[in-house]
Specification:
The protein is an alpha/beta fold. About 15% of the residues lie in helices and about 30% in strands.
């Protein structure tokens, strides 16, 4: 049975964790004054590795987003990092895991509510606990082009690129490259139809 000392230790650990999260989030907001970031958003990165996070102008990060950026990981030799272009929208509850690979989201693109963007996955090894194996290093990182909309509850898996002006339907799992100017959807996602490029739409 736990006693008062254990309760105090647990409470202090929780306070320390919240204080650390507050400091990390404040540093990101201070460095990026044009960014609008909800106070509940979590920024998880090593204190001395803030340069691994590059944020453009007028980025919006909504409530309960969690953004993890670890350039160095014991699970992989591939560096992690995050680049958000101008006008990027990270919607409510989005989970970005930029470790073991670079995640890049282009200008004017948005990641819909409760979507997950994963920079690296564990590599299954027969007979070993999956969460203790090294990460896959041949398929890493995620690149989202300019003017892309990723719908709610999507998963973007490591090693994929989504081309400019494409749309990903809600609830999709993207496991391979999406060319520009296309709508993809499903599990796994596949091409549904083409969309006109912006210049064609104007013409």
């Amino acid at each position: 049975m736990s006693g008062p000392i254990t309760h105090v230790k647990v409470a202090l650990e929780a306070v320390k964790r919240r204080a650390t999260e507050a400091v990390l989030a404040h540093r990101i907001r201070a460095r990026n004054p044009t960014m609008r970031c909800h106070p509940s958003a979590i920024w998880d990165y090593p204190y001395h590795e803030i340069d691994a996070i590059q944020i453009g102008r007028n980025v919006h990060v909504f409530a309960w987003a969690e953004i993890l950026v670890y350039p160095v990981s014991k699970h992989s030799s591939v560096r992690g990092g995050l680049v958000l272009g101008d006008g990027v929208i990270i919607a409510k509850g989005v989970d970005i895991r930029a470790a073991g690979g670079m995640i890049r989201i282009g200008n004017g693109s948005g990641i819909g509510q409760h979507s997950v963007v994963v920079g690296a996955n564990h590599r299954p090894v027969l007979g070993q606990p999956i969460f203790h194996t090294p990460w896959e290093e041949t398929r890493t990182g995620v690149t989202v082009g300019d003017n892309v909309w990723v719908g709610a509850n999507c998963v973007l898996l490591p090693g994929i690129t989504i081309g400019d002006n494409s749309l990903i339907a809600a609830g999709s799992v993207v496991s391979r490259d999406v060319p520009p100017n296309e709508i993809w959807g499903g599990v796994p996602a596949r091409k549904l139809k083409a969309v006109p490029a912006p210049e064609q739409a104007r013409g």
